[in-house]
């Protein structure tokens, strides 16, 4: 069921944060009672008109946004069954973002799903170090209701979870196609400096999928520009009403919003608003 965030999860004061006009919540969502598996979430309301603005679920890591640390064993999320960590079927966001959206559509839930944005999955080590220090302070953990259960501390990247690497060979582009066919707008984006999953292959996958869906190119591959009138990347759009779009983010690595936050935000805001990128 979908409801409002519980009152006990409300963050009264986030250490180091100035006074804000919006509400914040953090806590746990139980996903498996038997294994006592719980995922940690952090929900930030929009500063204004939060009930009328789109709600974003950010997996794996802004306003009206829920950050969910998944799977269990990542960040503050945990399972009290040790065997779980050796058999995690979820692999990367390239799998569970489209699959979660597909489950929502096929189950006929009352979740009002409109769009998904999917990254084809370099971190500033200094930023990473400060983030680790902050989230491992006891008073910060108390403020966000984090529990160190089955995890000793917060880390950005854990080696405890053993992913089922056989799933990496199962592409989810077909799932993306089914979502587009059901009326969900989809954006697939890549950092053009991504050395883990080069953008050229991703662009080819999206292009082939558009042909399978019978979508015409409505915006040919061309550069888009950021707020400073600099080239932000390249984009191509298929189908009416931006049904399927692909975009690169110039200068971005595997974790695009971390390495190129301003351009990622420009891309993200345009997608949520249903508008084409500035060209």
TrEMBL record:
PROSITE patterns: CARBOXYPEPT_SER_HIS. InterPro entries: AB_hydrolase_fold, Peptidase_S10, Ser_caboxypep_his_AS. One of its GO terms (molecular function) is serine-type carboxypeptidase activity. One of its GO terms (cellular component) is vacuole. It comes from the Eukaryota. Gene3D superfamilies: alpha/beta hydrolase. This is Serine carboxypeptidase. GO terms for biological process: proteolysis. SUPFAM superfamilies: alpha/beta-Hydrolases (SSF53474). It holds the Pfam family Peptidase_S10. Belongs to the peptidase S10 family. Keywords: Carboxypeptidase, Glycoprotein, Hydrolase, Protease.
